[in-house]
Design goal:
By secondary structure, this protein is α/β, with parallel strands linked by helices. Helix content is about 50%, strand content about 15%. It is globular.
Length: about 325
Amino acid sequence: MAYDLDFERPLADIEKRISQLQKRGERMRPDERAQVAELQQELARRTKELYAALTPWQRVQVARFRDRPYTNDYIKRMCDEYFELRGDRRFADDRAIQGGVASIGGQTVVLMGHQKGRDLKEREECNFGMAHPEGYRKALRLFRYAERFHLPVITLIDTTGAYPGLGDEERGISQAIAENLLVMAGLRTPIICIVIGEGGSGGALGIGVGDKVLMLENAVYTVAAPEAAASIIWRDNAFAPDAAQAMKITAPELLELGVVDSIIPEPVGGAHRDYQAAAESVKAAILRELADLKRLSTDALLDHRYQRFRVIGLQGITEVVGAAQK
């Protein structure tokens, strides 16, 4: 897989040198084979160093990268079995949110997530991962199904936001998201939410209220895209990198603020470098968190969920008050 991101250009140069030597095939001399091995070691080392020190804006680029695994890629690699459920029973089937009943590590769950689409045809079908009201109502239907049959809910979040079209407003996009927030807050079954790419605005929150909220290492979670924030604050989206820095949207920053509960490590160079390794990390995190949540009674689970969201932001407020008092 090519190193196509802007900040990966030094890595792309090394990869190009390796490729040029490997084109010689069986004609490579022993010294050239040794050079390829050295370059591969250097590429691995520099990739690890680069990804260990990504800026928030660089993480945004990784989270949005076209080759990053999407919900269906995780489903194929995590699930022993999967049966998709379609439609919201009211209007249509929104392909931007897909889900159904799945078996993960021998545990039956209801699994759903945003799907952006891999090629142009699929992206148009999935509306680039920007869900319509019927997508959130389908998710609501699956939440109710999970509660009825006492199945844990797993959501995979990866969207720039809900689609802001006129038809969506007419069909009640804000109401659909708000209803999901209300229902998820009181759903009597464990819920685990995982930001696998870009968690944007209400589109992410519509399937993002859970007992545990996790993030992949290079995912981002934000109330607005950095470009939008830059346009509002500086009247110029060229300041998007500055906005990304100021907004604290990366996994380590959100873990410190208590917005997410833990970070799922990715393969060196990002999840797009090794889909299977990324899926195995997500699967392990799901099974670990489910084991903890299943120890709680239903009432204790709901109380834990309530308290989890009540304390978000208290640390920041305490720090501000402390600084003001000084």
